[in-house]
Amino acid sequence: MGRAPLHFAVAEQAQISVMHQLGSSLHMISQYVKKSRSAIRPYLNNLLYYGKKKSTGRPRKVTSRDERNIIRTSPILQRTSTTFVQSSIFLFVSRKCTMKPQEVERLFDRT
């Protein structure tokens, strides 16, 4: 016997929301939608963020937009040393970041 899906379909979410706004009890909503009260309660407690994942892991030092900006200037930068690239990176990215020379080389190797 498999597990039930973790999130409600959009139609079920709409039904639950409308019934809740009309003042229906949790017990009545669960009978109508045929889902348990313990499944409906988290949805009603957090309507805006229900079913949205939190970002996990460490954020990247350089965003994909910053990567594109660095790579776009790569014909100029590949002829220079990585320490020069490292020192001049703040000209091309939207925020100041500190990248090690190995990270700059890895960025160019990915392209």
Automatic annotation (TrEMBL):
Gene3D superfamilies recorded: Homeodomain-like
One Gene Ontology CC term in the entry: nucleus
InterPro entries, per database record: Homeodomain-like_sf, Tc3_transposase_DNA-bd_dom
GO function term, MF aspect, one: DNA binding
Subcellular location field: Nucleus
Ranges where the Tc3 transposase DNA binding domain occurs: 12-51
Protein's name according to its UniProt entry: HTH_Tnp_Tc3_1 domain-containing protein
